[in-house]
Write a structure and sequence with these properties.
The protein is of the alpha+beta class and 344 residues long. It contains 8 helices and 11 strands. Strands 1, 2, 3, 4, 5, 6, 7, 8, 9, 10 and 11 form an 11-stranded antiparallel β-sheet that branches. The longest helix is centred in the N-terminal third of the chain and has 16 residues.
Length: 344
Amino acid sequence: MRTKTNDGRFFEDYAVGQVINHAVPRTVKMGERALYHMLYPARHALYSSDQFAQTCGMPFSPLDDMIAFHVVFGKTVPDVSLNAIANLGYAEGRWHLPVWPGDTLRSRSEVIGVKQNSNGKSGVVWVRTTGLNQNDETVMDYVRWVMVRKRDPEADAPEPVVPDLAKVVAPDTLVIPRGLDFTNYDFTLAGEPHRWGDYAVGETIDHVDGVTIEEAEHMMATRLWQNTAKVHFDTSARPDGSRLIYGGHVISMARTLSFNGLANAQMIVGLNGGAHANPCVSGDTVRAWSEVLDKAETSAPGVGAIRLRLVATKGGAPFDLRGEDGKYLPNVLLDLDYWALMPV
């Protein structure tokens, strides 16, 4: 008997070169911003105030860069990670255009790698996802890889293809929003006096604050972003009966915590790499610290690019990342490497 329902793709359903156009386009408005600021709560001035954005050369305040990420990501879940065991990492991400209230976003992914795990029960799939607006313009693109269950453990393993991914997005390829100008930047309204020149490569910053993750807010976030992966919704999908907190929820929470010390890292424009090192579940208290990895000049007036490592933890001392064996410590939730724009 044929069924009309969708049980999602399993590992053996993917092939390198396959292109997936994801349903359903979504028009984003100010409601997304209000909910985003409620859930995390975001405070970067460029995404909070039309007046502040206008002094920075923009017509008004765009939606948060992570809103674009969450919506574009969420569109891919029914086709890429509905049967995921875990989302593993990111690379080669760039934000190409701001997202404005009223824009309609959709997503398209190409499978660029597959590799079955040694246990024969699952495999890793790499996809390059592109988020497009209503004008078919690229808003953002990135690579992610995800561990997916096999439908039939006895199915033949495909020829492994592991993509060769850049370790860092070259700073001269970062896209600076048209008109962005930080020469009249108001540090008082932004919340901190620290500018691009005040940060040194190798510097570490403890963001001090912590937020305890609640089950209800996580469920609200996954519904808001339409991320229907079973491990986030269904307690029977994981052996211990817990719901895995959506990795993007941890990213946004850590980014929000980073305001304390990096309030002027206004816009995320590049995603160099990222790993969800250990699972996050309800009740974990997320804290964050950052390390300055690199700095680069840009052609935009008063605008510099800063490369940051953002680490989210659920306890332990700040700045501890890996053990003597080279593996992430068990309290590390997220290791994210990104480029942001900051006034010089």
